[in-house]
Backbone:
RNA sequence: CGGGGAGUGGCGCAGCCCGGUAGCGCAUUCGCUUUGGGAGCGAAGGGUCGCAGGUUCAAAUCCUGUCUCCCCGACCA
């Protein structure tokens, strides 16, 4: 078999790129750091989007859309926020081109009076709008989400994990009380955890970021962190409690039931196409992509095996009721009846693309009233009677979904360690993985650890060991262990 | 943005040092034989050698600039 995908242990980065290429998820674009999301990648995103969107709707959110362009002055209104994003904003300075000999150039006459920035995130333009929408406590809460693209001018990019333009959703909510906003922040974090674990089959740790890793402009940033197969951590989603920072910056006040004018409390939360990168690195293997059934664009592929037209039509005839029954059960089925590829070629191709279940139907199966069922995750094959196939397959899809999560969870647990001393920590971090250790809570110590080991504090976990101790570096008191890892 | 590597039919590569009319494998098209793990034979089509300048009788090859990708750093979802 011609191997087109680099083995993970030979070169993990190359493997990641090969999987994306062979699964036809995305291409590089002519513009540095941008990507073309191909139909296979986009339908995966659409599935993720569909699930998340209904989860947002169930928690009372509505979708809206705010502009791509933001007046430059808006960004400078919240001091921390500017500092965080200033270095990575695309700026629009001109409005047109003019033809010149051999092409076009920017028309110097068209310089904009106020330059526009391409949104790196939309807090500013949204809070500017909220000012006009909010007068009374009766106008609150505002629970809005938008699906959009954003641009961050990154130095170093990787397909899905960090691109200059990416697709995401950003929720922006406004509340009358601090408590309500904090509850919203945690509720959405829980939505993300549920989505990651129950749909992506990607186990995560939930926690709060340290001040140095916090979102620019937030009071607290909560996150879901997951461990990839190479032992590096990926921040998969964030939910921010913004306090009154943006309300103050954009002067958004409401009159409360007690007659007082008060600043509004805010949250924002988002996940992006980066999740696709996380999905790839959580489940895929040296044969290509492995997808959880709940998100796979195609859950079952049927490959007829035939030597001639007669056998082909028999196989198709045999497959037809099965396809119908599976579809009636809500299973997405694709029949691969192309005759310009041999079965073996198709097997390899669908494996590379991550289709959870493959069914082969050949003359032998038809004769015996069977089908051959192969699982993508374990590569296991078995012959089953066609009569039982619909129920076997719907059950198998559920089993695969669970097994993928369990396998990923086991890997994450096996790669999670506790370090009591800094010496121990330095040794452990070389093997990758999550490491719990005591930390004195200061930025200096965090920075020292980062400089010496390249590991960062991924989060201060919300659930877990609450035992106090002493910082592994300084020996100062520590309330509880925090989670370290090298990260993407 | 600094250091290293790379860009040649759709994909993977050779040719470059030492300039002389662009080649291989896979894929594509047609025909025949094939089809239970990436089929075989025969024929055919397809390339501004990343882009822009320059040197030269002549540039994929030499020189300059520039764009994109990969790896490693600093910065970030």
Residues:
């Amino acid at each position: 078999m011609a191997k087109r995908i680099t083995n993970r242990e030979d070169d993990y980065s190359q493997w990641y790129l090969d999987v994306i290429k062979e699964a036809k998820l995305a291409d590089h674009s002519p513009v540095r750091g941008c990507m073309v999301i191909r139909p296979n990648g986009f339908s995966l995103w659409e599935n993720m989007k569909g699930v998340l969107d209904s989860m947002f709707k169930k928690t009372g959110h509505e979708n809206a859309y705010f502009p791509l362009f933001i007046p430059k002055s808006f960004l400078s209104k919240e001091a921390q926020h500017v500092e965080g994003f200033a270095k990575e904003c695309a700026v629009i300075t001109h409005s047109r081109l003019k033809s010149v000999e051999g092409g076009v150039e920017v028309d110097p006459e068209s310089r904009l009076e106020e330059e526009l920035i391409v949104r790196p995130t939309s807090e500013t333009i949204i809070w500017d709008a909220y000012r006009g929408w909010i007068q009374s406590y009766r106008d609150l809460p505002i629970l809005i989400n938008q699906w959009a693209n954003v641009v961050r001018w990154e130095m170093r990019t990787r397909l899905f994990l960090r691109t200059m333009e990416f697709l995401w959703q950003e929720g922006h909510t406004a509340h009358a009380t601090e408590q309500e906003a904090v509850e919203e922040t945690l509720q959405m974090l829980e939505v993300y955890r549920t989505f990651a674990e129950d749909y992506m089959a990607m186990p995560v740790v939930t926690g709060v970021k340290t001040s140095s890793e916090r979102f620019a402009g937030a009071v607290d940033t909560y996150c879901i962190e997951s461990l990839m197969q190479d032992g590096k951590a990926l921040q998969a989603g964030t939910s921010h409690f913004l306090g009154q920072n943006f309300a103050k910056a954009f002067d958004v006040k409401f009159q409360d039931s007690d007659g007082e004018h008060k600043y509004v409390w805010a949250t924002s939360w988002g996940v992006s196409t980066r999740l696709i990168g996380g999905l790839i690195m959580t489940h895929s293997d040296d044969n290509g992509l492995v997808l959880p059934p709940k998100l796979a664009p195609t859950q079952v592929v049927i490959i007829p095996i035939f030597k001639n037209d007669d056998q082909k039509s028999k196989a198709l005839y045999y497959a037809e009721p099965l396809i119908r029954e599976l579809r009636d059960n809500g299973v997405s089925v694709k029949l691969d009846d192309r005759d310009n590829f041999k079965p073996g070629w198709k097997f390899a191709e669908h494996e590379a693309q991550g289709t959870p279940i493959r069914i082969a139907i050949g003359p032998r199966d038809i004769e015996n009233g069977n089908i051959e069922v192969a699982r993508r995750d374990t590569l296991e094959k078995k012959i089953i009677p066609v009569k039982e196939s619909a129920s076997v397959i719907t059950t198998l899809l559920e089993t695969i979904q669970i097994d993928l999560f369990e396998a990923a969870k086991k890997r994450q647990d096996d790669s999670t360690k506790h370090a009591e001393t800094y010496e121990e920590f330095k040794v452990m971090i070389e093997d990758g993985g999550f490491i719990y250790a005591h930390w004195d809570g200061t930025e200096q110590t965090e920075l020292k650890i980062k400089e010496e080991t390249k590991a960062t504090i991924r989060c201060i976990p919300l659930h877990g060991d609450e035992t106090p101790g002493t910082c592994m570096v300084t020996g100062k008191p520590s309330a509880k262990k925090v989670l370290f890892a090298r990260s993407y």
Q: What stands out?
A: DSSP finds 14 helices and 27 strands in chain A. The longest strand of chain A covers residues 165-175. The mean pLDDT of chain A is 94.
